[in-house]
Specification:
Layout (H helix, E strand, L loop, with lengths): L2 H20 L6 E7 L18 H9 L1 E3 L2 E2 L5 H10 L33 H7 L3 E7 L23 E5 L16 H27 L7 H29 L2 E3 L2 E5 L6 H15 L5 E6 L20 H23 L6 E7 L31 H4 L3 E4 L8 E3 L3 E2 L3 H8 L16 H4 L10 E6 L2 E7 L8 E8 L22 E11 L18 H17 L10 H4 L18 E2 L1 H7 L2
Parallel strand pairs: 1-8, 1-9, 2-11, 3-12, 4-5, 4-8
Antiparallel strand pairs: 2-10, 5-6, 6-7, 7-17, 9-10, 13-14, 14-15, 15-16
Helix pairs in contact: 5-6, 7-8
């Protein structure tokens, strides 16, 4: 071949390569929608016939519905840590060894470590504009109230507008308190003991049976007064100190107002999309709905068939519709992967003193939030990308909320970190029909720090085995939750341990009603042996890391307390309207 012909061939190949690159599909945008405590039995597309969720249902009709989509943890903080990093929360220290499994104070020092890599950080490095609007719940500060080491802006988000902790009953006047049991144990019982002691000493002194110096009575009365004073301070200051809105690093509303809150956050999410319509973007809209305290605007209050919970759920669905409408209006729908989910199952123990049900539905599944029965971890999972993902597809393979991390990273062109284990798997081969089987042969279900159950989906089988090493003791007996403690706990006398483990085939018994035995499953011991070996191999991959949810990291620290005013602990301001104009 002559040199001139070789040169022409090289030029032709170069032109073809440039042409191919010029027509390469642009990187997609990502809109990730996460509800809080929404049960898999709540949306219409998962079987609910009385809650109106037309926009979530539309997503499912236009995309893929996952029917065995699983939260990596049945609690907010660890589940969200796993979602953001693609890793089991025990790997990042976001799995508690105590009874407190989430952050409840804004002035806690624990949080998602700066060493962790979120999908937002990966995408920001790829040139994406990134925003988190809504709930964070993964910590704020470490050493002082301005270091923001755990803040969303330190984890790859360019913009944050929302609450740094979580929505609680205590944040809304008249909605009760999540601390009722703690107040009873730490306040009322000590006061009763002091009262009985005072009465006993007074009687003995009157009868001349015991000489009691007046200073003893004085000290006991002072102790009682101090306990009561601390309680009153706690009840008065908790709301403003922990329930507030931030925009980036600035507090914009303290305490937060629920008036049109969903509308405000939805409008901000829509504005972010409009501002970044010409560049790749990642939006995580992390709803406060439907975690208690329940709230809704006048357009939705009193309109559902399920009281305050239904009103909130239908307002959540409205917001989803607003985001989809903006994508359609800007002609971005065909280049945007939309994902809808919940951080864990519905909180079935959420019942008011008046008997009103403030928790959602987990459908046919047992249990709920804070336990690893299917009702606690099986969550809605819907993905839509027109022209790329087949519309109306239903996939009944085990998938995890940890899978979003590698899926988003690969689509954005980012390599995965090589210095750590990523537990999630890319979902695209499954979503596009290139494989019919989940990459998750084994999944490990943690109750906070403790390995609770193992899931095994053998490659050559339709069975999905699930083995429990322990299960929570539901109370009262026969109930579908831990109503006496409001949530189920993970150790001590609150659980029943199983030797051998409790085994189910959730493919045949999704409600986990009938445990298997050697009499009903001939391979019983063989199956359990394989699952134990998998658990042992998994344990070998774990490394000791600082416990971000230790009592020392969870408890309130006054030097970390953020306040929008300098006048003591009054902490009251409303800068939402002013900050709105300055938002990015």
């Amino acid at each position: 071949m002559s040199n001139s012909r070789k040169m022409r061939l090289r030029l032709l190949l170069l032109l073809l390569l440039c042409e191919a690159q010029g027509h390469a599909a642009p990187r997609p945008n990502f809109v990730l929608l996460m509800a809080d405590d929404l049960g898999i039995g709540d949306p219409g597309c998962y079987g609910n016939t009385t809650l109106r969720t037309p926009n979530i249902d539309r997503l499912a009709a236009e995309g893929v519905k996952l029917t065995q989509h699983l939260a990596a943890s049945p609690l907010c903080t660890p589940s969200r840590a796993a979602f953001m990093t693609g890793r089991y929360p025990i790997r990042s220290g976001m799995a508690s060894q105590s009874f407190i499994g989430v952050f409840i104070f804004s002035a806690s020092s624990g949080g998602l470590p700066t060493s962790e890599i979120t999908f937002a950080k990966l995408l920001k490095n790829q040139g994406y504009s990134t925003a988190l609007i809504g709930k964070w719940h993964l910590g704020t500060n470490c050493h002082n109230k301005t270091d923001f080491c755990h803040h969303p802006l330190s984890h790859g988000f360019d913009y944050f507008h929302g609450i740094p902790v979580t929505n609680l009953r205590d944040c809304k006047p008249g909605e009760g308190s999540v601390f009722t049991r703690g107040i009873r144990v730490l306040v009322f019982i000590p006061l009763q003991i002091i009262a009985i002691t005072l009465l006993t000493l007074a009687v003995l002194k009157c009868l001349g049976l015991l000489h009691v110096p007046p200073v003893v009575f004085f000290c006991l009365l002072c102790l009682a007064a101090m306990i009561l004073g601390l309680l009153l301070c706690f009840l008065h200051y908790f709301r403003p100190l922990n329930c507030f809105l931030m925009r980036n690093h600035e507090i914009t509303q303290q305490p937060l107002s629920y008036d049109s809150l969903t509308q405000r956050l939805t409008a901000d999410a829509a504005q972010f999309i409009r501002r970044n319509a010409g560049t790749p973007f990642l939006l995580l809209l992390s709803y406060l709905h439907v975690h208690t305290a329940l709230f809704s605007s006048p357009d939705f209050a009193g309109h559902s068939q399920h009281g305050a919970y239904g009103d909130a759920a239908e307002e959540l669905d409205w917001s989803v519709g607003q985001i989809l409408n903006v994508l359609d209006e800007l002609k971005l729908a065909n280049n945007t992967l939309v994902y809808f989910t919940s951080d864990q199952g519905a909180h079935v123990e959420e019942v008011t003193t008046k008997g009103e049900v403030h928790g959602g539905s987990n459908g046919i599944y047992k249990g709920g939030k804070a336990n690893n029965w299917e009702g606690g971890i099986r969550i809605p999972g819907i993905l839509r990308w027109p022209g790329v993902i087949q519309a109306g597809l239903v996939i009944d393979e085990p998938t995890s909320n940890m899978d979003i991390f590698p899926t988003v990273a690969k689509l954005a062109g980012s390599p995965l970190p090589e210095d750590r284990i990523i537990d999630g798997h890319d979902l695209m081969p499954l979503l596009q029909g290139k494989t019919q089987h989940s990459d998750h042969e084994f999944l490990f279900h943690y109750c906070n720090f403790y390995l609770n159950a193992v899931r095994w989906h053998p490659r050559n089988s339709t069975s999905v085995w699930k083995a429990f090493f322990f299960t929570p003791k539901f109370s009262p007996e026969g109930a579908n939750g831990c109503f006496s403690t409001h949530v189920c706990f993970c150790h001590g006398h609150f659980v029943s341990r199983h030797h051998p483990p409790l085994l189910f085939d959730v493919a045949k018994d999704p409600g986990e009603r009938t445990p298997l035995s050697p009499a009903t499953e001939p391979r019983f011991r063989e199956i359990l042996a394989v699952m134990q070996q998998a658990a042992d191999r998994h344990a070998e991959t774990l490394q000791a890391v600082p416990n971000q949810l230790s009592l020392g990291n969870v408890l309130w620290k006054p030097w970390l307390q953020m306040c929008c005013s300098s006048s003591g602990l009054s902490c009251q301001c409303d800068r939402e309207n002013q900050a709105k104009g300055a938002s990015r």
